[in-house]
Amino acid sequence: xxxxxxxxxxxxxxxxxxxxxxxxxxxxxxxxxxxxxxxxxxxxxxxxxxxxxxxxxxxxxxxxxxxxxxxxxxxxxxxxxxxxxxxxxxxxxxxxxxxxxxxxxxxxxxxxxxxxxxxxxxxxxxxxxxxxxxxxxxxxxxxxxxxxxxxxxxxxxxxxxxxxxxxxxxxxxxxxxxxxxxxxxxxxxxxxxxxxxxxxxxxxxxxxxxxxxxxxxxxxxxxxxxxxxxxxxxxxxxxxxxxxxxxxxxxxxxxxxxxxxxxxxxxxxxxxxxxxxxxxxxxxxxxxxxxxxxxxxxxxxxxxxxxxxxxxxxxxxxxxxxxxxxxxxxxxxxxxxxxxxxxxxxxxxxxxxxxxxxxxxxxxxxxxxxxxxxxxxxxxxxxxxxxxx
Length: 389
Ligand SMILES: Cc1ncc(COP(=O)(O)O)c(C=O)c1O
What we know:
The protein has helices spanning 16-22, 24-27, 38-57, 71-85, 101-112, 130-136, 159-168, 240-255, 257-278, 307-316, 326-329, 338-342, 364-379, 382-388, and strands at 4-5, 65-68, 92-96, 116-120, 141-145, 172-176, 195-199, 210-214, 282-284, 295-300, 319-320, 353-357. By secondary structure, it is α/β, with parallel strands linked by helices. It folds into two domains: 4-12 and 258-388, Aspartate Aminotransferase, domain 1 (Alpha-Beta Complex), CATH 3.90.1150.10; 16-255, 3-Layer(aba) Sandwich (Aspartate Aminotransferase, domain 2). It has a seven-stranded mixed sheet with strand order 2-8-7-6-5-3-4, sandwiched between helices. α4 (71-85) packs parallel to α5. The longest helix has 22 residues, at 257-278. The protein is globular. The two termini are 25 Å apart. The protein binds pyridoxal-5'-phosphate. Pyridoxal-5'-phosphate binds at residues 70-72, 75, 100, 102, 147, 151, 176, 178-179, 199, 210, 327. The site of pyridoxal-5'-phosphate has 14 residues, from α4.
């Protein structure tokens, strides 16, 4: 049976050109960058070059890029590192209600350490209101963390306006750009972003590597102590194959950006238009205009708690989609999505959406096949099919 992978927001297939870039660093150039001999120095040069290549795509300076073991780690580092380094100034942190769990859970932990966490609501399309944010910034505020684009509904937040509001008030602004990086032009200095999280496995690179952009001058404490790697900010022997693959993945996204952006938008709009036209019970979650090029998130009146059953039906037919965020669902208990709830959906609707996320390897034929199979999968949900199609 043909397999169709439509879950590229969860992770992506590693590009063969990335694999090729990584291979020599397992078997030939395997030195430890902290070693003083030739093999070690070659490894150190490789990391420096990867750092420079990624920095160039961000218009940043290489020493503003700190490699981490994941996007989750970079988010933890940003929140905890800034919170503790600036504790004399204040203990107030603002995040949006639709952040990824790798922001929300460290915030819960910071609350236990006597930080005050304020959760900014979003509108029904998932957008934060900058005026609302401005009202909540106070003299104790040390950090605002608002994601660049949401992983479930694809809404793109107005990071430039948020950056300006934070800079004006002397508050650091961090953005989790794991879903947007490589899909939206991103220029942290111009957009007045102080810290940004990126990772490789959403952009056809390997899992287990990420980075935190830290603007020069930002006060942050290290969160992982040890041998002092990564300019003393993140100790651990560097994962060189993954870092080299990350750099290649970033470059490929930037080189191929325009063509790929247009192609993905066309496929995305084809899916959205087709479903909304052909299936009267369907509705789109998130913003139609400010939306990631690869994201479709559809709810169905009447489907409600049956989204998982629909996902499994599609799976039997060789089509892989998601009902929410793979990186936070982690297991079989299917909770209502905190993102959809924050968009104002009721608890039953918030368990009833399908996320279809496109990527580099999806073809128009695959999209057509999905659109052909979807009504059949829904028809298989006997109890509610009559309401749905
Ligand atoms: C928005 C967002 N932030 C952070 C992460 C976590 O990144 P990682 O899987 O590299 O830990 C993810 C998902 O992976 C994500 O979608």
